[in-house]
Design goal:
Number of strands: 0
Oligomer: single chain
Distance between the termini: 44 Å
Number of helices: 3
Shape: globular
Amino acid sequence: MFAGSTGGAHAAATLFSIVASCELAGVDPFAYMRDVLSLLPHATPADLKTLTPMAWAADFAERPA
């Protein structure tokens, strides 16, 4: 209704889903998106499981500061 188009509604739903998943995992959505979007161009299909908010949070906690 307020998305402007079906494509806009789909994009908004995808973004809201990612943000909600980050919040459930206790992850800052902005930090998650910034890191994952920089990793995606070089990611293989096998890497995608490690880029979910839950897996990313566990991996990010293990990275050196």
